[in-house]
Each structure stands twice: as structure tokens, then as C-alpha cells.
């Protein structure tokens, strides 16, 4: 991975390290509401974040997919395919402006009525001292292509003239890709970001962009961000983003998904360890490999996967989940419905010493993975101290051990347990701790000399 980083350093980075200088932290509506989140629910989660989480660094409130679709009351439809009528038009018809740009559906987002778009909701979120994000699908709506909607900022170019009708999302058929070689394609993306900036959008998650990886469109979104006059985080979704595209993703995106959608299943955590290992050494200020949302709390209230439930992870697995996302420096996006958090969830999300590992660490690496145990560590810039995470990934309780020499540590070392927020003691050559099956522990190691 250092090869890719060298390329990025040699050729410069398009994304600013000031945008997403640390891994973004926030909440996303997808895991608890699917396509059917309503404005009052977004506000309720923003209120909770402002009251309970903002002081710990949580700040983004992200409305996920299909906000332009009118979910019927009680609907948990995940991704309704559009059908064509006799005249070629589409049903369901998504809410769209005259320039072929999707806008919020007013039945779900009442404040959008009258062409207000997401600005009133964005203003509300900003009034809480938080930041506002949205999910968008790559490309241009098929209904805009059928309607030959004019592309704003061009002279006579219409949607059908910039679409790549052979470029289609396999799991939701609302969009065509853009042929970025065609005149007007970049102008269409520019018009989107101009609209989003007018709404106060601080974060866009662009879907169907990483698998297959669409180089030209990734660059097009970043170019549009650069001209919109507002700092906007660019998140690429979903994975598996090809590792071979590491240099490109680092150059043009702020975060990108390493894997497909992650859910509350232990086997998926095991797989995430492997994905992370393949991306080791890539993350840094302005660009972060993304493990996907945090599956803790009340999930799937209206789909999209399984019945409404609290996370199926055990408490030990939830600690492992938070510990790994923190030590690896993945973006932290909460997926559960925040107002339904219980004491345990709240404690997981408000441990400032654990969050510091995610926000202040650097260069996370795997030390070893063997015999059902694993250790990752990261550096603390400006210090000889290290963050170290122990994982018991086996199916029985066991001791996980660390030889300090393997991390270049000599003499006495103070070990602090970050989950318990207390010093364990001083040790001279090694440290070991018994950990429950599927559990984890997170430490700060401080050499005395």
C-alpha cells in the first residue's frame, strides 16, 4: 500500500486534507429506516446527537437513499424498480425539478414543499451545531432522460445527450450513468452540487460508484464539489472498492467503502478484518477506507434487512465492533435509531478515550493474527505512546498476549485500559489479558523512558 501512497504524494491530491481531516463521525438513516425515513425522524436523531453525542465529536446527520420517492405510510420498500408506461414515462415518478435533478419528496419531507428542497432541514441540523449529509445515486435519472430535461449551465444540452444508457445500476433501475466525455455531463454534476450547496449539504454519499469503480464519474463529482463553493465530504459506496484503485480513491474521495453492506453478523466482522488488512497503510487526513456503518442500537425499523430489532451482536461483539472501527480509523457512522439507545449503547458512543483512538491515532497496522487472537496498533503523533487493540476472534475465552519488543518498546511500559478508563499498571517485557470469546480490549501503552 505504500506504493499507492507514494504515487499520491508524487502527483498530488485533489481532495483537501482539511475536509475529513479526521475520520467523519455521524449518523446515517439507512440501517434503521431503509428508504422510508421521514423528516421528523431525521430531526429526532439530530436532536439526540446534539444533546448526547456532539460533545464527543459526532456531527454528521445523513439522509440515506430514495428521499425523492414517496414511500406509502408504513412502507418498508427497499428499492422499487421503475416501470415504463405506454408513452415511455416511468412509474413510480421520482420528485424532480425542471433541470433533471431529484428533490426531496414533500410527503416524507414536508419542509421541502414549494421547491424548498432540503434547505429547511439542513438549516435545522445546522442550528444544532451539526452537519448535514445526503445519499445520492450515481448518474442521471432515467426519467430525466425520457423527459429530455435541459442541463443547467449549458446551451441546449439535454439529459438524453449526456447519459450513458448502457451504464446501469444492477439493483435499482432509476438512473443511467453519465458519459463524462460528452459535453454537458460535467455541467450536470456541477448543477447537482450547486443545488446541494444551496441546501447546506456538507456530505454526499454517492452510491453505485465503487463496484464497478467509475473513475471518470468519481473525478466528476470531486470537480463539481470544488466549484460549488462549499466544503463537502465525498463518500463512495458501496464496496468492494478495488484495492487496485487505492491511488485514485485517495486522490479524489474522502472515504470509500471497502466491503459491501455490513450487518450485525459475527462472520461479517471477521471478513472486515481481512478487508482492512488489504487496505492497511492507505488511510490518512482527507481520505479514509470505510468499514461501513456501525450496527449497534435499534435497527431495521422499516427494513432493509430483517425484522425490527436491537443489534444481534452480543455486548462483547459490540465492543469488538467499536474497537476495530476505532483502531483502524474507519469513519464512524452510527446506524441505529439514536433515540432508542439504551445505557450500554450510549456508553459505547461516548467514551472519549476510545474515540481519541479513531480521531488522533495514525498509521494503524496489524501486528499479528493467529490462533484465534489478533492485535492491531497505531501511533500517536508527537508521542512515543501507542494505541493497541487486543481481539479474541475465537469461539472460546482466551488470553491474548503482547511482547513489547514486537512494537519496539523497551523498559517499563504503563498500560491504560481505554474502555475502563483506568491504568492497569506498569510492565517490563510483555502484557497479556484474558478476553471473552468474540471480545476485545483497547489500550494506550506509554513507555516510561
TrEMBL record:
SUPFAM superfamilies: (Trans)glycosidases (SSF51445), Glycosyl hydrolase domain (SSF51011). One of its GO terms (biological process) is carbohydrate metabolic process. CDD domains: GH27. It comes from Mucilaginibacter rubeus. Gene3D superfamilies: Aldolase class I, Golgi alpha-mannosidase II. Residues 375-445 form the Alpha galactosidase C-terminal domain. Residues 1-20 form the signal peptide. This is Alpha-galactosidase. It catalyses: Hydrolysis of terminal, non-reducing alpha-D-galactose residues in alpha-D-galactosides, including galactose oligosaccharides, galactomannans and galactolipids. It comes from the Bacteria. GO terms for molecular function: alpha-galactosidase activity.
Amino acid at each position: 500500500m505504500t506504493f499507492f501512497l507514494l504515487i499520491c504524494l508524487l502527483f498530488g491530491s485533489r481532495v483537501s486534507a482539511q475536509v475529513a481531516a479526521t475520520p467523519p463521525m455521524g449518523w446515517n438513516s439507512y440501517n434503521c429506516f431503509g428508504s422510508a425515513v421521514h423528516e421528523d425522524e431525521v430531526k429526532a436523531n439530530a436532536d439526540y446527537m446534539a444533546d448526547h453525542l456532539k460533545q464527543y465529536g459526532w456531527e454528521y446527520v445523513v439522509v440515506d437513499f430514495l428521499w425523492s420517492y414517496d414511500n406509502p405510510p408504513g412502507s418498508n420498500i427497499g428499492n422499487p424498480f421503475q416501470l415504463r408506461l405506454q408513452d415511455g414515462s416511468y412509474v413510480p415518478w421520482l420528485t424532480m425539478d425542471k433541470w433533471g435533478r431529484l428533490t426531496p419528496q414533500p410527503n416524507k419531507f414536508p419542509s421541502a414543499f414549494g421547491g424548498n428542497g432540503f434547505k429547511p432541514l439542513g438549516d435545522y441540523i445546522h442550528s444544532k451545531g451539526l452537519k448535514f449529509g445526503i445519499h445520492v445515486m450515481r448518474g442521471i435519472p432515467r426519467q430525466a432522460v425520457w423527459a429530455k430535461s435541459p442541463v443547467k449551465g449549458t446551451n441546449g444540452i439535454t439529459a438524453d445527450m449526456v447519459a450513458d444508457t448502457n451504464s446501469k445500476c444492477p439493483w435499482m433501475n432509476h438512473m443511467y450513468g453519465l458519459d463524462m466525455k460528452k459535453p454537458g455531463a460535467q455541467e450536470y454534476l456541477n448543477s447537482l452540487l450547486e443545488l446541494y450547496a444551496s441546501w447546506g449539504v456538507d456530505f454526499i454519499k454517492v452510491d453505485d460508484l465503487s463496484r464497478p469503480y467509475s473513475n471518470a464519474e468519481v473525478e466528476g463529482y470531486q470537480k463539481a464539489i470544488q466549484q460549488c463553493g462549499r466544503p463537502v465530504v465525498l463518500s463512495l459506496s458501496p464496496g468492494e472498492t478495488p484495492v487496485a484503485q487505492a491511488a485514485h480513491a485517495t486522490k479524489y474521495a474522502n472515504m470509500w467503502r471497502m466491503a459491501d453492506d455490513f450487518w450485525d453478523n459475527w462472520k461479517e466482522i471477521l471478513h472486515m478484518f481481512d478487508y482492512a488488512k488489504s487496505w492497511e497503510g492507505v488511510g490518512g487526513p482527507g481520505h479514509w477506507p470505510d468499514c461501513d456503518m456501525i450496527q449497534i442500537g435499534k435497527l431495521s425499523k422499516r427494513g432493509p434487512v430483517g425484522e425490527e430489532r436491537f443489534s444481534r451482536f452480543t455486548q462483547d461483539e459490540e465492543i469488538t465492533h467499536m474497537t476495530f472501527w476505532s483502531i483502524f480509523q474507519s469513519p464512524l457512522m452510527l446506524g441505529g435509531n439514536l433515540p432508542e439507545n439504551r445505557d450500554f449503547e450510549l456508553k459505547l458512543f461516548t467514551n472519549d478515550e476510545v474515540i481519541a483512538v479513531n480521531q488522533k491515532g495514525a498509521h494503524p497496522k496489524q501486528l499479528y493474527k493467529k490462533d484465534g487472537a489478533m492485535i492491531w496498533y497505531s501511533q500517536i503523533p508527537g508521542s512515543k505512546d501507542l494505541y493497541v487493540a487486543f481481539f479474541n476472534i475465537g469461539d472460546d475465552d482466551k488470553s491474548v498476549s503482547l511482547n513489547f519488543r514486537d512494537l519496539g518498546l523497551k523498559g517499563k511500559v504503563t498500560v491504560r485500559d481505554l474502555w475502563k478508563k483506568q491504568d492497569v499498571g506498569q510492565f517490563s517485557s510483555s502484557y497479556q489479558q484474558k478476553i471473552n470469546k468474540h471480545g476485545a480490549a483497547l489500550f494506550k501503552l506509554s513507555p516510561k523512558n
